[in-house]
Amino acid sequence: MSNNVMLSFVKLGQEYPEKRAAAERAEDFAEIANRYAAPDAEAQASRCSQCGVPYCSTHCPLHNHIPDWLRLTAEGRLREAYELSNATSTMPEICGRICPQDRLCEGNCVIEFSGHGAVTIGSVEKYITDTAWAEGWVEPVAVGPDRGQSVGIIGAGPAGLTTAELLRARGYEVHVYDRYDRMGGLLTYGIPGFKLEKPIVERRVKRLEEAGIIFHHSFEVGRDATLEELRRHHDAVLIATGVYKTRGLKAPGVGTGGVVEALDYLTASNRKGFGDAVPAYDDGSLNAAGKNVVVVGGGDTAMDCVRTAIRQGATSVRCLYRRDRANMPGSQREVKNAEEEGVEFVWLAGPHAFHGDETVTGVQVAKMRLGEPDASGRRAPEPDPGADYRIDADLVIKALGFDAEDLPKLFEAPELSVTRWGTIRVDHRTMQTSLEGVFAAGDIVRGASLVVWAIRDGRDVAERMHLFLRDKAKAAAAAGAARGAVAA
């Protein structure tokens, strides 16, 4: 095909890969849609208008070369499309699955503005790299000559894994330390399989293991080693732990049994999917089967919880969100998927109190209304006096977002500087913390954010760490030469 296959949006409509029927997909944790067949992917890629200023790329945190790999896909040059996609992203098939494209690349597609429907960028991205894995085009990490320096990375989420890959490619010895028994962070334990099947993550981790990256499982900094001990062991250290402290909810009865944290709930479900022994799942504590479930929150984690509860066989699933649909932070596509699967959304509603003695039996719901804009510019929710009502609940899941843990205390590093939000303070030019040779990236710096931003931060910090290590090696060589000259 030649370049004239492009611009077909004027005659070809937008079509995403077909989703499985809601009743069918609610029975399992498999992804809800298959990837494109080749003719469909090529046709949808050909809808791209090949903009001179591609808003899709500029609104992608990774600045992926989207129009270029869409053109290559449309022309049937799929291996070249994969290589170009892989040039800017360490996990393109993962981003294709879990990025909120409706808020990023597709939401800023020029033909979307013209009323023709955005190019299905995420689905094409997923198709490209899934095909590359199937065809054997995904090559081993090309490891550079040994530099004689080592790096310790705390956290095996997307930021840590990205940094590990890029520094290993430069020839550094790389050790990754993670508190969990499997690598991947929230990709493994926080995101359900219906959005990201776990073999997709496992094959990425295996590729890094085969490159010689050393993974230390079930390793907690502060328990198994202090931060200072890791600093002495490595030439540079990266903190990429993410943020795992659940935001609190103040309401009478919040400590009642059956009121649980979102991450505990999702981790239990994912562990069960791996075949692990999960006592809290088996005894019903973290299992929605046969229960009236209420999820509090309106972000992507809340969407993961409600859709997981449906698959576990909940009797009913309601999502309480204190703002309206237009103001929720979660993906609108996820809301639609959840509604199709049987989730009821209760807008302008928040928990006022939790009923029950030892175990929760209901939620007292405060009806809300939108008042004046808050500091972020969004209209702040406020209670509507006298409009409370009660709904039954056997399981309440708090999905209100995440904050940073107290890392200076956990890591036994009181000199590690943090912001008033508990995130690690860095020099944004060097990405270095208050401790020399200790860097930080991802959510632990920017706060709870998107996987694609973590990958971008990992890419950036790998470059900064390389410059630091290069200068450190030069300084050591110069000092060695000086000592030799004095001895002579």
From TrEMBL:
<dbReference type="InterPro" id="IPR006006">
    <property type="entry name" value="GltD-like"/>
</dbReference>
<keyword id="KW-0004">4Fe-4S</keyword>
<dbReference type="InterPro" id="IPR023753">
    <property type="entry name" value="FAD/NAD-binding_dom"/>
</dbReference>
<dbReference type="Pfam" id="PF07992">
    <property type="entry name" value="Pyr_redox_2"/>
</dbReference>
<feature type="domain" description="Dihydroprymidine dehydrogenase">
    <location>
        <begin position="25"/>
        <end position="136"/>
    </location>
</feature>
<keyword id="KW-0560">Oxidoreductase</keyword>
<feature type="domain" description="FAD/NAD(P)-binding">
    <location>
        <begin position="151"/>
        <end position="458"/>
    </location>
</feature>
<keyword id="KW-0408">Iron</keyword>
<dbReference type="InterPro" id="IPR009051">
    <property type="entry name" value="Helical_ferredxn"/>
</dbReference>
<keyword id="KW-0479">Metal-binding</keyword>
<dbReference type="InterPro" id="IPR028261">
    <property type="entry name" value="DPD_II"/>
</dbReference>
<dbReference type="InterPro" id="IPR036188">
    <property type="entry name" value="FAD/NAD-bd_sf"/>
</dbReference>
<dbReference type="Pfam" id="PF14691">
    <property type="entry name" value="Fer4_20"/>
</dbReference>
<protein>
    <submittedName>
        <fullName>NAD(P)-dependent oxidoreductase</fullName>
    </submittedName>
</protein>
<keyword id="KW-0411">Iron-sulfur</keyword>
